[in-house]
């Protein structure tokens, strides 16, 4: 493999590349054989209050641009204010006109959904590009939203008020412009089935040459599994011009959002960029650096980050950040969308991949569970305990943008209503406010999704969560029940007296008056068993002041004894309906009563008692982590009970000591990324503890080795019955482009035999053709995967006809349902859309519908919970039916999840 960027080397400091300075050293300085004591990092952005807004749905400042200059036909212009999937009329001038309203929430940063010029309508989607994710011109504001000058005016005015403006950007894909000679929106073809080929027809693995000068020349006629084509008139549609080269796209068909195709497949036909190609890397850097230089954009939210290869981020992130700093943007900040709720995965993008932060999807899940579902308070404590996954030398959890809902998943108001059917208005509003209190008082940068401050709800995500703040004409929006108000979507909703607007403004105000509630050290204190109080402290490390935050998610008042660092001190209420003052006991515990579904905050009088000496510190034996084999858990045992910060360092044999992170709450630990090191590489670790008086104490040095990779066999399914061929699939941890995975087979307990190997990253697959082995039924076959000295789990299958457990019902919801007699389209529970199971194990439905082009999918058991699309992929892209008007028969095979229409 040719490395794209030396910043990927684990023990090389990223600080120079990112422009992030280390925290000030403690005094006195440490000796050469002791780690340097550091303050826990606070990056430039730990105290922002974001307002996330979709410009088309906020305010209509000018009706002149409603149709984007494309005329009155909605199928061309995309403007139809009566349809939730089309442009509704909002624009940048509307945002500019309403800055007082936004500022009144305590907003410090406005985050705009993508605002570049979009393909106005994609007929295959029966929708318009109002959302901004179908970009054709990355250099121009979408005419429906205004002009580049309108954007500049908005940014300038926001800056004059002390507010920043963030762009939502896309590097993964463009609008759906490229088609294939083989057909539109085709099923995904894997790299193992059809590898990429050079212009001369030689197979190669793109991961081996990602981003390098060795990337070979390509030819659309031979290099891809599908042959890309452009419609007449669209050959030069995209801007900049390099985006019109079909060689710069993956061209493998639609993704199923799992495995290899999550990186290489088209999102519902959107042209998936070849981000491993150096031209794409350089082109994307140039696009977004231009917006920084010319318009003064303050930061980026990056769409679909987990669907782009790691090497891209390892170059894009540091280079764009360095450019921003060179433009005087010292607080420039980027955070990515990694739609996942496991911290061991989401944190890889800030540690391994050199990005500053990611959207905190795990927080959203935890906050909803606590505030809306009254989940066990202990789960919230476990959630914050996992923040150490994000700690490294130049980033940590304090920078993560936290949120409660968004334009894709749905609104917090909608979640609260769905989670509490039959609850009264007061309870729903209280739960909504409790979620916001948790978000504002805990670590991270809170994000308000526009409309949440007006109690917007909605029955789901995507279009159902994109209501207008100005008066709507969309029927589906007009029947929404808003929280905290009698208003409807039939009127403007810019009510500054709405209880949620006032609560959010108050939360921003109190955290502004007490900055420790935004960026102070977050210390877990107490968690009830079951629903009840969760409490934590925020520590002002400079002033040595302690704040206690207690939240109650039960429907009864609760009392708890909460530990603090402050013995026999008075705590004064600064937020909530608790007692005005409480006093801690001599052991530091303070008794707090919290009303139902609410929060209280207390500030302690005086400073935390000064430590007389640094406590003893020792390191446990470092070991690979269960969640990520490419990281070592390094944990310190600190013998003390005051406020401490522990800094960790590492080195390879003969190398220099390198900071790998500072933790300011127990348990003190980091998850050191060693994925780039060869297995068996010798490592040494040490740590130093810093107390609140500047005293330090060092640990001894402990040794470890970089772990061998772990290989996991994911297919075939255990105990499956197979006939003729067995599909094998394995994954490696850590994933490296240099990995070569071998597959082995054993017949009826016999010797293991290598049957194939695969070096195509990131998924390792093979189809074992057993038809020629002449194996009798009930023969047992075992499979395993081998990577170096690592051997995977074993999967056992049996020769014989597969047993298929048929579902209770199968339907074909689609754009033709109303033509079939259903009350509407896309209805998986419509009787007329239900298929019938035949004796051959296939489901069929024959219907007579009007000719035309329709999209559809297969749904199981009359619900969207299980559905299949292109290529039989679960939740995959819509299938397309080109229908001539004759009766059509749909046939579905539950073994393969494939459906045909003839």
How are the secondary structure elements laid out?
Elements: H1 15-18, E1 50-53, H2 74-77, H3 92-97, H4 99-103, E2 109-112, E3 116-118, E4 121-122, E5 127-128, E6 135-141, H5 148-160, E7 164-169, E8 178-180, E9 196-197, E10 203-204, E11 228-230, H6 261-264, H7 278-295, E12 299-302, H8 310-326, E13 333-336, H9 343-346, H10 348-351, E14 357-358, H11 361-372, H12 377-385, E15 401-402, H13 412-419, H14 425-441, E16 445-449, H15 475-478, H16 499-513, H17 516-519, E17 521-527, E18 533-540, E19 545-552, E20 558-562, E21 570-575, E22 581-583, E23 590-594, E24 598-604, E25 616-619, E26 623-624, E27 631-639, E28 645-652, E29 658-663, E30 668-673, E31 682-690, E32 696-698, E33 702-705, E34 710-715, E35 721-722, E36 725-733, E37 741-747, E38 753-758, E39 764-769, E40 780-787, E41 790-791, E42 795-799, E43 810-811, E44 836-837, E45 842-847, E46 852-856, E47 858-860, E48 863-868, E49 879-883, E50 888-893, E51 898-901
Parallel strand pairs: 1-2, 1-16, 2-7, 7-12, 12-13, 13-14, 15-16, 35-42
Antiparallel strand pairs: 3-6, 4-5, 8-11, 9-10, 17-18, 18-19, 19-24, 20-23, 21-22, 21-24, 25-27, 26-27, 27-30, 28-29, 28-31, 31-32, 31-33, 34-36, 36-39, 37-38, 37-40, 40-41, 40-42, 43-47, 44-45, 45-50, 46-49, 47-48, 50-51
Helix pairs in contact: 7-8, 11-12, 11-14, 13-14, 14-16
